[in-house]
Each structure stands twice: as C-alpha cells, then as structure tokens.
Design brief:
Radius of gyration of chain A: 23 Å
Radius of gyration of chain B: 24 Å
Strand order of the largest sheet of chain A: 6-7-8-3-9-10
Helix content of chain B: 55-70%
Structural class of chain B: mainly alpha
Order of helices and strands of chain B: HHHEHEHEEHHHHHHHHHH
Distance between the termini of chain B: 21 Å
Number of domains of chain A: 2
Number of strands of chain A: 14
CATH topology of the largest domain in chain A: Rossmann fold
Structural class of chain A: alpha/beta
CATH class of the largest domain in chain A: Alpha Beta
CATH superfamily of the largest domain in chain A: P-loop containing nucleotide triphosphate hydrolases
Helix content of chain A: 25-40%
Number of strands of chain B: 4
Largest sheet of chain B: 4 strands, mixed
Oligomer: heterodimer
Number of helices of chain A: 12
Distance between the termini of chain A: 45 Å
C-alpha cells in the first residue's frame, strides 16, 4: 500500500494474547433468543470470521461487543478491558463498521470523516493526518470533497470502512461489509481488509459469504440460531464435514419446467437433496464414491444430465452438514428444500 | 469535558447537514417569504385602518336605557360606512343572526361599560372582530373620560410605547407585520423538527449506532439532538427577522426582548418535536406527523388564519398553544413592549418546554431499555 499506514497503537498493560474475549453472551428480545451462550476468543493480529445465515445472531453479538447493546449475561473483554465495566474505555480500542451505511449523504466524504474523528476525540493535525490515511487506504482520496449522495454503493461501503478505522483501533469489527456492491468494489474492500490484517490489526469479520471468510480468516466460528455450532481454524472446521462432497447437476431450462417428479426422486434418493432455481445439489456424506449411484438414480427418473460438478468440502458444506440447511438465504439464489 | 466536546460536535454536525441540504433551505426560507409577500399584498386591506367593507355590515343591537348604552349605539351608528344599526330586542338579535337577516348582533348588558357586550356572528366572519375592536376602543374612551387618573394613564401610554395592547396584541398591525411573525412562528416548528427527523434517520441508517460506538453516551446524543433543534430554531427566526425587515420593512421591536423570546420559542418548538421523536421512531412517519401537527397548530394559533377572523371562543380555547403564545409575544414586541413586559409569555413557553422535554426524555429512556 502506498503512503502512510493505518497501524493500531500499542495498548499499555495488556499482556493478554487475546485482543477479544467473548464469554457466555446471552441476549433475549421478548420470547426470541437472539444470542444464546456465545463464547470465542480472537488473538492479537488475527482475522476471525463469524459466519452464519441471516438471523443467526451475528449482528446482535457484534452490537454487544461494540458496547451498544447490554447482554443479559456474559461479558466481552477488549484487550483485557471489560465492555460492561468500562464501556467507553473499551470502545476507544474498537473500530466499528456497521452493516448499514452509517453515513451522512448531505456531507462530503471528508466532512463525514471529520465529524466522526471529532467524536473520537481527534483534533488538529492528528485528525487531518488520520483522515488522509484512511481515505488513501480505501482509495477515496480523489473523492474526499464530493458529497456522499453522489457516491456509488461501493464507494459508500469503502467510506463506511474508513470511518471505522479512525482513531487507529486495536480491533476492527466488520459487519457484512460487502453486502450489495459490485465485484470491483468488493475486491477493493477485501484487499483493504487483508492489508490491515497484514499490518497487524485484529479483525472480527462477519459475513454469510463463505468465500470471503475463507479468503480472509485464519479461524472462524459458525453461528446458527444464536449459538456457535462450530469453532476453530478453517481447516479443522472444514473437516467437520468429513468426506462430504457436493454434487451439483445444472438444469439449463430451470427446475420448475423439468419433466421429472421431484418428490419421487427425493423419496428414492438416500442422500439429502437441495433444489435451487437452476440446479440440483446433493450432499454425499461418503464422498465422491457415491456419485455413480446418485447419477443412476437421476437417469432412472428421467433427469437430463447436461453436466455435473463435484465440490470438495468448504464452509458451505460444513454448514449444510451441521444444520441440514443452506448458509445463504435461499431466496437469493433459488428454492431450497 | 469529552462529553461536552461530543455534544458540540453533534450539534454542529446536525446544523451542517441542514445547511448543506439545499431543498430544506428553499422550503424553510423561500416558501414563507413568498407566502408573506402574497398574503401581505392580497389581504392588506383587512389589516388597514382605511379598510371599509363593500357595503355596511347589518348589525342588530339590543335596545338600551342607560346613557352609556345609548352612547355605544350612537357611536356605532356614526360609522355609516361600516355599520347599519338595527335596534331590536335581546331574543330577536340572536334569531336574526341565525336567520342571516343581519351580519352580526351586539348584546349590550346592563352593566356596560364595566361589563363587556357580547358580539354574536357567524364563525370566521370579519365583522365580529371589527365590532369587538370598535367596542373595546369605546370602552377605553369611556373609562378615560370617567377617570382622570385613567385618562392620565392612557395619555402616558399613548405617548410611550404601547405595551398595553390588551387581549388583542395583533390589532393595529399591517398584513406584512402580522404574517412575518405568523409565518416565522409556523415555519420555526418545521425548522426545529428537521433536526429531530435527522436523528430518527440516524437510528435507521446505523449512524446512531456508530456514533454510540465512538464512545458517545445515549444521553449526550439525545441532548445534542434537542439542542441542535433549538439552535436551528433560533437561527431560522434570526434569518427570517433579518429578511422580513429588509424585504418588507417589518420591525421586530426591542432586540433584547426578541432575543429572549426567540430562545424560549425555539426551545418550546424543539421540545414539541423532541416529544414526538420519542414516541415515533421511523423518520418518514415522524416527518409526516410533524407536518400534520404543525399545520394544525399554525392554523389554530393564528399563524396562517388571522386571529381577528377566528371566533372568540376558539381564540380563548387555544390560547395555551405554544405557537399562539409565541405569536402574541412577538406581536407585543411589535407594539413596543420590552422583555420585562413578556414575563407571562416567557414563563409559559419555558414551562411548556421543560414539561415536553422531560416527557420526551422519560419516554426515550423507557424505549432505550436494552441499550448499553
């Protein structure tokens, strides 16, 4: 990265190797349990992924970590400082990038940054210096004086991240930072996050995009219905899927118009089947050895085979294996079953 | 110290957002100026001392025995351009108004002039207000003749600033003077509301969460929103006072009185908006609610419909509205009142502000349960 770097400051008196320690968090809204005993740790300089479908409890967990929501039970320690006991002190060590675009559209990019920098307590030359650094990091230096209302979705997302970096936080919380943007901006954001990680910043990254988490993170936790259902280094979590592979059969004309009976097919298969708008997916728990028998069953039911793909275990397979459902919102891609 | 700096940042941030919102500036400044100009030109006649109706108003007046009563009837009868007097009995007077045989009726009590006559007219008719104004002037003149002391007081009052504008401080103002005050009081509500709509929008966009994550306490943010609404209100009234003085020659009176009244008016309007924002979370709903409430308040308090056209009972019933209190305060300043003469208005607006702000604060606190 050219120019100055955004480096986190050293925190005095925190010999603890964990930048973030989440311990037994519980949060309930009425009868709905949003977070149910969530615990994990993030080491200094680590990029940790928090993965889960919409409604899994990721955002509530992040809000508790950021000191925005009071937990019913449990605590969070940021570099050894309890968020419950010393909220503002702990918040000074955190940078938060919320899922929503927390920007003021009437203001320019630099006015937005200046506003939040003042709230952070930055003043004078230090404020200007940090604003310049973060603008450069996210590639918006040339657009600093433009009104945010005229920015593309990707530029807004990048500015959203830049604000979170003000004050050089020890730990950066990123909540789905690539939602709804073009591939180019997504790539830019992922590269920026990677650069920050390379420079030693601790990052907690939530997403429901497995490929992003696999690209950025060393360790992950998978959440579902407020609980952590898997936790550890990516390779270990991936191994939870065992020998599972996913067989994908495309249907060019679309599943809805297919000339075969889906229910009959499902009844005669001995493996889980997921129906998407343009393909069928089968999780094969015993690996690729099961592929021929599944293909035979498909042919017997009149399924036209225009091609096939076998995916080796990834986080999506793990999630499917652990919960029996897809990680991403099926509405976005097709029809899950 | 840190909280104070954050408070100032929040206030200045909200002010900057309003200033940079071009459509808001057009809506808040250009529109009222345009309305003041249009109303000032078109209804000037209603406010002018040279105003005479197209035909004299037909006025039924109860037959009287005392000298004072007969004096009033003669005085009304002498205004031939204005009134055609028809002496009738008490019962007939009311019936004739209902049957529209006359435009208005005046029921003169035996206790006149100590006791005020009752004017009966259809709601919204200018004749009622014109009669009330005329009769009030007559009663003052009788009182002045009857009492040398009172006469001396009246003379002093007429030489010095007319701070004793009585219950109707809006009388004697030009249409431009009336509507400059009326529209400013009406639009200051919208101006102050802008800040609260911004803060509601911040909760939806996540900006509020981000501000909180930067170590800003909920209380600091709430207070910042309210204070920004007050600041916007004060700035708006100042701009309107300057522009109406420049464009229409409107005099706003004693500057110290104006400053104090402007501060408490802005605080009261900000508190109305603050209370609404504590109840309604969604910014679009809050904006619509504000528009509805403020339009009704403006009409009922005389900002858009002149007070002398409103029926007496409505004027009395709605005298407590903060917009009405502010309006009367500014009218008194226009008549030459000083800050010390505005004590009732300042007390009323200050109390309203305190009550509404406290209510809004309590509701916000209850709704924020679960926030860290």
């Amino acid at each position: 990265m050219p120019g100055q770097r955004v480096k986190p400051p050293d925190v005095q008196g925190t010999a603890d190797s964990h930048a973030l320690q989440v311990d037994g968090l519980k949060k309930r809204y009425g009868k709905t349990v949003a977070v149910d005993g969530v615990s994990f740790t993030v080491r200094r300089g680590e990029t940790f992924g928090l993965l889960g479908p919409n409604g899994a409890g990721k955002t509530t967990t992040l809000e508790i970590i950021a000191g925005l929501t009071a937990p019913d039970a449990g605590d969070v320690s940021v570099c050894g400082i309890s968020i419950r006991k010393a909220t503002q002190q702990a918040q000074r060590l955190l940078g938060v990038v919320p899922q929503g675009l927390a920007l003021y559209e009437e203001m320019t990019a630099s006015q937005n940054l200046s506003y939040f920098a003042r709230l952070r307590g930055l003043s004078g030359a230090e404020r200007k210096r940090q604003i310049g650094e973060v603008l450069e990091l996210v590639g918006l230096s040339q657009d600093a004086r433009r009104k945010v209302a005229g920015f593309s979705g990707g530029m807004k997302r990048r500015l959203n991240i830049a604000i979170g970096l003000l004050g050089r936080p020890q730990v950066l919380l990123l909540d789905e930072p690539t939602v709804g943007i073009d591939p180019q901006s997504r790539r830019h954001i992922l590269d920026s996050v990677r650069r920050l990680a390379d420079e030693g910043m601790t990052i907690l990254y939530t997403s429901h995009y497995m490929e992003e988490v696999e690209y950025l993170c060393q360790r992950i936790a998978i959440m579902d219905r407020g609980r952590i259902i898997a936790h550890g280094p990516i390779a270990e979590v991936r191994a939870l899927a065992g020998d599972s592979v996913v067989l994908r059969i495309p249907a060019a004309a679309g599943i809805a118009d297919a000339p075969f009976d889906l229910e009959k097919l499902r009844a005669n298969l001995n493996v889980p089947m997921e129906v998407r708008a343009d393909e069928l997916r089968f999780r094969l728990p015993h690996g690729a050895a099961q592929v021929p028998s599944v293909l035979n069953t498909l042919l017997e039911h009149g399924v036209r085979l225009d091609g096939m793909r076998v995916d080796t275990p990834n986080l999506e397979t793990v999630f499917l294996a652990l919960t029996g459902k897809a990680l991403r919102d099926p509405g976005a891609d097709g029809v899950a079953s | 110290m840190q909280a104070a700096r954050q408070l100032i940042t929040i206030i200045s941030g909200l002010l900057m957002r309003l200033v940079r919102d071009g459509s808001a500036i057009v809506w808040l400044i250009m529109l009222p100026l345009l309305i003041i100009f249009v109303l000032g030109v078109t209804v000037q006649g209603l406010f002018s001392p040279d105003f005479t109706p197209a035909r004299p108003f037909r006025v039924a007046i109860t037959e009287a025995s005392s000298d004072a009563q007969q004096h009033l009837i003669r005085a009304l009868g002498s205004q031939e351009d204005f009134f055609e007097i028809i002496p009738v009995s008490d019962l007939d007077a009311r019936r004739m108004v209902l049957d529209r045989e006359v435009d208005a009726a005046v029921l003169v009590p035996n206790g006149y002039p100590e006791e005020a006559p009752v004017v009966v007219s259809e709601p919204g008719q200018a004749v009622g207000s014109i009669l009330e104004e005329f009769i009030q002037t007559e009663r003052w003149s009788i009182a002045a003749v009857d009492s040398a002391v009172e006469l001396a007081r009246m003379e002093v009052a007429s030489e010095g600033p007319n701070t004793d504008a009585g219950d109707s401080p809006w009388l004697g103002l030009s249409a431009f003077e009336y509507y400059a005050v009326g529209l400013t009081v009406m639009f200051v509500m919208f101006a102050a509301h802008h800040a609260m709509v911004f803060t509601a929008g911040d909760r939806e966009s996540g900006a509020y969460a981000r501000v909180r994550a930067f170590g800003v306490k909920r209380e600091t943010y709430l207070l910042g929103g309210w204070a920004a609404a007050v600041a916007i209100g004060v700035a708006f009234i100042a701009v309107m006072a300057g522009l109406t003085r420049l464009l229409f020659g409107v005099a706003w009176g004693d500057w110290l009185g104006w400053l104090v009244l402007t501060a408490v008016t802005a605080a009261a309007m900000a508190s109305v908006s603050f209370l609404m924002s504590s109840v309604v979370a969604k910014s679009s709903t809050l904006e619509q609610l504000g528009s509805t409430v403020f339009m009704i308040m403006a009409m009922a308090s005389g900002s858009s419909i002149p007070l002398h056209v409103l029926p007496s009972w409505l004027k009395s019933a709605l005298a407590w509205l903060p917009s009405r209190v502010a309006l009367e305060g500014y009218f008194q300043l226009s008549h030459g009142a000083h800050s010390r003469n505005l004590a009732p208005e300042l007390a009323a607006l200050g109390t309203t502000s305190l009550i509404l702000f406290t209510l809004g604060w309590l509701i916000s606190s209850v709704r924020a349960r679960g926030e860290a």
